[in-house]
Amino acid sequence: MTTRRHLLSGLAAGTAALALPWPARAQDPVPQEQGRIHIVVGAPGSTKVPLALPRPIGGSAKATEFYEIVRRDLELSGWFNLISEAAYIEPAGTGVQPGEFRFEDWDVPGSVGLGKTVLSEQAGRFRAEAWVYDVPGRRRLGAKAFTGNADALRSLAHKVANEIVFRITGQYAPFGTRFAFAGTFSGNKEIYVVDFDGHGLTRITQNGSINLQPAWSPTGTRLAFTSYASGNPDCFVADLAGGKITRLSSRTGINTGPCWSPDGSRIALTLSANGDPDIYMLDSRTGEVLTRVTKSPGIDVSPGFSPDGSRIAFVSDRGGGAQVYIANADGSGAQRVSFQGNHNTDPVWSPTGDRIAFVGRSGSFDVFTVRIDGSGLTRITQGMGDNEDPSWSPDGNYLAFSSTRTGSPHIWMATADGSHQVQLTQGKGGYTNPSWSPQLA
What is d(CA 254, CA 295) in angstroms, rounded to the nearest whole number? Predict the structure, then answer.
């Protein structure tokens, strides 16, 4: 089957947190602050912190590129209102350490958070520093340095942006993640992987057929997906480290919608060898059927595990029309959780375990979330093209989905309450079935 080069180096290779001064500085950004480090608590999108981000010092020729990556990450996150550089009164090139700048200069543009950065180069390697401050409190929230080789600039910028988010909010952002998706760039639907911010596009399959529904393993080292490469909708698994793609299930009928258990030992899959589509548990290494989960007449598809692996969400027409249900992982105790409309599909359980995202159709397709008891229905998208295939970020703060609101499908991201929505991929469209990876770096 198709092979390819190692993918896992995409975000993290050649980068490391640094605990030694390089080059020599009066103080190295290693000491950690005591007590509470953050100045805002909540969720992204609910309260946006006014943040100043002056351009990096350090003399690197790549400083502008580095700065734009960090700034875009912070804008995408939904945590901040980035203050215009035109409002800054601090002279460009002012230092980053305590005592090298005046907090009063950042009161003028209304900064609450201040992210100062350094990017320097030596012997073909970069050093990036993040110094983060609470302006009204006149205190340093934290500082950290990272180093990386010449091709690790984007990774270093993502790490610096993540450090700024963490020091101000107490939470990490998903800048070190990737998306697997089905793309139509070659004229066929192939499986691709792309960085969180839409860069680093890598093709996984090259079979010239239809490939759909990629799903990350919990370790981020394998992808399960459905492919028609052999003329039947079969389930395949791509080993991202070794570059090998193997067929896991090719039973008569459909072998679709794979979903990994949280421990990676099982894959829930829809099979139809016995007639009606039902959900089965397979051994993720051998493809052996371990158990049949659903046995009701009609269609049962699109399984999704709860965070602890004890339950699944799925779609069934057992009550009339496609609706979202949850059940124990053995199929017992099924209960319906979607009640609005007659076509609700693609359920995905949030990493926090309290909500399920799904797609509802009311003319167009839109993303909703609901509590697992069926209450608290929240509409994430409305009146903005078709929005499908939701996927949660590893921390549960965000939802990614495919949207046609700007024309052809692209990957979009919304905060969990829908208040902050941004387009992640750019250029030529054709991004469908996005699956959000675990944290990779």
Answer: 16
